[in-house]
Each structure stands twice: as structure tokens, then as C-alpha cells.
Amino acid sequence: MRAFVTLLLLALAGCAPATPVTEPSGGSMLFTGIHVHVPAGTTTTDVAVAGGRVTASGVAGEVIDGSGLAMIAIVPAPDGRGHVVGAVEPGIPADLLVVPRRVMPRPGTPWWRVIISRGDVRALVSRGRIVVRDGEPLDRPANPDGERVGVWVDRADWLHQELLPEGRYDETRGGRQHAYTGRYWLDGDRIDYLDDSGFYAFGDFIRDELYHAEFVMRLRQP
Hints:
- This protein has one helix at about 1-10; strands at about 30-40, 40-50, 55, 60-65, 70-75, 85, 95-100, 115, 125, 130-135, 135, 150-155, 160-165, 170-175, 175-185, 190-195, 200-205, 210, 215-220.
- The chain has about 220 residues and is mostly beta strands.
- A hairpin with a 2-residue loop joins β2 and β3 (about 55).
- It is elongated, with a radius of gyration of 17 Å.
């Protein structure tokens, strides 16, 4: 199974459903000279963030050197089922991932298929606020309302992923207990995982199912 994760780290992907930004949030920042997907393809440009959204021009605030880095936007999937890797455009909510260019996920990749080594996550921006920087999670509540706590089970009853109220997860795979363990954070209908073995992964809650990697899970009823 570790070999499987290694392949995923090399492949990189992502998707799931998004919660729109209703209130301005986050600070102001400017990423200079960063590689991005845009509607017409890819380009290297400056990207400004203010009030929780990508803006059309530079703003006062922190300046982040994007040399050698790439940025993708986490946007609602065209079919409305979760999120995908999308283009960076002015006006969209600033849900962004910054990684080295060599591991830039492709456009259209389901967000719940994205898996990236911890050191390659240079920044994860949620609604205009940096929540991961240089692989380190910044202070934010993991599960402030205790939502979605419990054991999530895949359709084959092979994976049991327990989301604990204190922001830890513990997976049983094929009967092997503690196969993967780590920390998680809820972000609307999305979930971020930081595995103890050293990689970030992501998931999406689509209606009453949790999509993560190749698995689709439902909450086990008591």
C-alpha cells in the first residue's frame, strides 16, 4: 500500500463539491512570477489575493516570490459533484494550492484525487487565508462543530476511516488496523489530511458520501 501512495505522489491529481465564499475573508497577498492554469492554457504571471478572492491587480500586503512554483485553483466541478483543479481567474474564491512546477496537478483533476508530499505543499490557501505554509499546518480548528465524526466505510467494506473529534483520523485497511493515521481539517464540504508518514491528501463530501483517493465512503450508522 505504501508503494501505491508513492505512485500517487508521483502522479498527482484532485476533485469535489465547494462552498461559496459569502463574506470577505483572508488578508491581502501578491504571488509574483508564479505559473498558473488560465482559461487559455498556462502562463507565468502575478496573482493577487484580497478579501478572500483572486483580484485583477496587485494589492498591498505580503509579497510571495513564486519563482519555480505553480498555483492551481480549487473550483467547483462542472457537473456540480465536488471540486476539480481549475484555472486561476480574477473574481474566484481564493482556494489555492501552491507547489513546485514539477508536481503541478493537471486541470480537471478531481480534488479528492490530489496527493502531494508534505514538503511540496508550499502553501494551501483557503478562502484567502494561508492554512498550510512550507508543509506546516497553521493554527486553525480541525473540526470546530464536531461534524462528520465517526467511521466512514467504503463500498467494499475494505477501508474504514475513523474521523475523531480531536482532529485525528485512523484508518483500517483490509483488516489491518492503523494502516494510515494523521491529522485532518474540515473546510466546508472539503477535508484536508496530513498523514503521519508525510503527505497531504484531500477529500470531498458529496451529499452523504466521502470521496478520497480511489474510495467512496459512507458514514457507518451506530
